[in-house]
Specification:
Elements: E1 2-4, E2 13-17, H1 19-27, E3 34-38, E4 41-45, E5 52-53, E6 59-63, E7 68-72, E8 85-86, E9 93-99, E10 102-104, E11 121-124, E12 126-132, E13 135-139, E14 144-147, E15 160-166, E16 169-173, E17 178-181, E18 184-190, E19 193-197, E20 202-205, E21 218-223, E22 226-228, E23 238-243, E24 251-256, E25 259-261, E26 264-268, E27 271-281, E28 288-304, E29 311-314
Parallel strand pairs: 1-3, 2-4, 3-6, 4-7, 5-8, 6-9, 7-10, 8-11, 9-12, 10-13, 11-14, 12-15, 13-16, 14-17, 15-18, 16-19, 17-20, 18-21, 19-22, 20-23, 21-24, 22-25, 23-26, 24-27, 25-27, 26-28, 27-28, 28-29
């Protein structure tokens, strides 16, 4: 069933706070869920609010494209945990979808570097997530942050799995465009464009405490994406990062048919990585680095820059 937020009291005028109406609508959905439809309009999330909490399963948040804007006024520089959409911690959500929306979480020019949980979408555990046709901009944290569900002390953390992100535009993000931490697997990111991302555009990084399950940091595919990384980035113009640690190595990743401007591909402490048919433009530093990684296959890497070498250091036998 489709639920039009304006039919349930949302103003969408860019002035009236709408998160209360939207939250009440989500909370009232049956267990079967439904489509929360945002017709053309500007839907304001107040700064005092943590954002819209996804309290039910089987929900699609659907708009009409960039004309359906959900936004927050610029949070305080000391703000924390300010999202547009988020799932509660220690609860597993299932079958969520976001489509054809513009999400703007408020621009922060100089956020406190120790406080960066200002994501547009924060998913703490989801089995089945589909994000399609979104424009995400002006985030003090990450554009999309995906993590596990469950406390660190739990013996078996619940992982986020079966994730598809395609046809999205992410721009003007202070931290990471799409971040995947603490047990995420079976993720496909395709046909997305990344512009002016200060840290990694895409980063997969398991936990460092020894509590993640090795089999749950696997299966990332990044294909047919465009990375327009600013050459003056404070984080050395990194585009794709698969970064493991001494506890766990992300496994079975494929980076295929992408175009990168200025950026670098970093593979550290990872296993079974295929990098094929990618093009890197205007990169003066090495276009790729690999350290303490095993079984990396590089095929048809085209580098159009003044530096044609890659820095690869494999894990010792």
């Amino acid at each position: 069933m489709i639920y039009n937020v304006k039919n349930h009291g949302a103003a969408g005028d860019g002035v009236t706070p709408d998160q209360g109406v939207i939250q009440a609508l989500i909370d009232s959905l049956p267990a079967s869920g439904g489509v929360i439809y945002f017709p053309t309009g500007d839907y304001l999330i107040e700064d005092i609010s943590a954002g819209i909490e996804i309290t039910k399963n089987n929900i699609e948040f659907r708009g009409d494209g960039p004309s359906s804007k959900i936004f927050r006024e610029s949070p305080s520089p000391l703000a924390n945990d300010k999202y547009l959409f988020y799932t509660p911690y220690n609860v597993m959500r299932r079958n969520l979808k976001f489509s054809n929306l513009l999400l703007n979480n408020g621009q922060i020019e100089d956020p406190n570097p120790s406080i960066m949980r200002l994501h547009a979408i924060d998913i703490r555990g989801c089995q089945g997530l589909n994000v399609e046709g979104l424009t995400i901009q002006n985030c003090g944290g990450d554009g999309i942050h995906i993590s596990r569900s469950g406390e660190i002390s739990n013996s078996e953390p619940l992982s986020s799995q079966h994730i598809i992100i395609r046809g999205c535009i992410l721009e003007s993000i202070y931290r990471i465009g799409i971040s995947m931490t603490h047990s995420c697997s079976n993720i496909t990111i395709s046909g997305c464009t990344f512009k002016d991302i200060d840290d990694f555009s895409i980063k997969m990084e398991p936990g460092s405490t020894g509590t993640d399950s090795p089999e749950l940091n696997a299966g990332l595919v990044v294909s047919h994406c465009m990375f327009e990384i600013p050459s003056s980035s404070d984080f050395s113009s990194k585009s794709i990062g698969i970064i493991g640690n001494s506890y766990f190595h992300p496994r079975q990743a494929s980076i295929l048919h992408n175009i990168v401007h200025h950026g670098e591909i970093q593979i550290h402490h990872a296993e079974d990585v295929l990098i094929a048919h990618n093009t890197i433009h205007e990169r003066v530093a090495p276009p790729m680095s690999a350290e303490n990684a095993t079984t990396i296959f590089i095929e048809a890497l085209s580098v159009n820059s003044s530096c044609m070498s890659c820095s690869v250091r494999s894990k010792p036998a």
